[in-house]
Specification:
The chain is α+β, with helices and mostly antiparallel strands. The chain has a single domain (25-214), classed as Chloramphenicol acetyltransferase-like domain (Chloramphenicol Acetyltransferase). 30% of the residues lie in helices and 26% in strands. It contains six helices and ten strands, in the order βαβααββββαββββαα. The strands form two sheets. Strands 2, 5, 6, 7, 8, 9 and 10 form a seven-stranded mixed sheet that branches. The longest helix is centred in the middle third of the chain and has 16 residues, at 107-122. It is globular and about 50 Å long.
Length: 221
């Protein structure tokens, strides 16, 4: 049975009622994160690539922060037990498809499943299926050509889309650091800057000390 948030007594009830009526209830935060330690950790082990590792670490943090699992359900707020990932994949003909990245507690499992899903999307084996009716997702995209400082996602204003949307950009080296742009876009009726800040802090911490997260069966930090 679906689980719903008890709105009565929720400290954010007034903000929820306020922002869910907005024509544009979304807000976006962009930051840059140092991925040098993650790249170094991946170089020491076999299996799994950098992009999948970024998706894995971000998805792990999203699952452990409850507001990132909140979704609008009419007048209510559904709490998903687990959310998965959906990411864009560039094809050889310069079109793109979507790959479904099933959540997994360990990186090896996630990377194996994710690599197969990305390969199927890249080769055109998977149909163009955005899964619009599946709210138990985090929407990902990657722009490896742009070290962006701001970002905006395409939106269908006729839909009550409350799925968080993350974007990764081009990595630029700066001495020992390797900076990657990160965009986090969320529905303001469901969370505030505090919650996005906590997500970014956790993601940064995982990037700085990735080994425990990449180890098979690693527990949540």
């Amino acid at each position: 049975m679906p689980t719903f948030l008890k709105l009565d007594g929720w400290p954010r009830r007034a903000a929820f009622d306020h922002y869910r009526r907005f024509d544009k209830p979304y807000f976006n935060v962009c930051a840059r994160v140092d991925v040098a330690p993650l790249k170094a950790a991946l170089a020491e082990q076999s299996g799994g690539g950098f992009s999948l590792a970024c998706h894995f670490l971000a998805l792990r943090q999203a699952n452990e922060l409850e507001p990132f699992r909140y979704r609008l359900a009419g007048e209510r707020v559904r709490i998903h037990e687990i959310v998965h990932g959906s990411t864009t994949v560039l094809r050889e003909d310069q079109s793109f498809g979507f790959a479904y990245l099933a959540h997994a507690a360990d990186f090896a499992t996630f990377a194996a499943r994710g690599a197969a899903a990305i390969r199927a999307a890249r080769e055109g084996q998977a149909a163009f299926e955005p899964r619009l009716d599946d709210s138990a997702l985090i929407h990902f995209t990657t722009l490896p050509w742009v070290h962006f400082s701001s970002f905006s996602h395409a939106r269908n204003w006729g839909r009550a889309d409350s799925v968080p949307k993350l974007a990764f950009g081009r990595v630029d080296r700066d001495g020992p650091r390797e900076w990657m742009p990160l965009s986090v876009e969320v529905h303001h009726a469901l969370m505030d800057g505090l919650h996005v800040g906590r997500f970014v802090e956790r993601f940064e911490a995982a990037l700085q000390n990735p080994q425990p997260w990449l180890a098979a069966g690693a527990p949540a930090a």
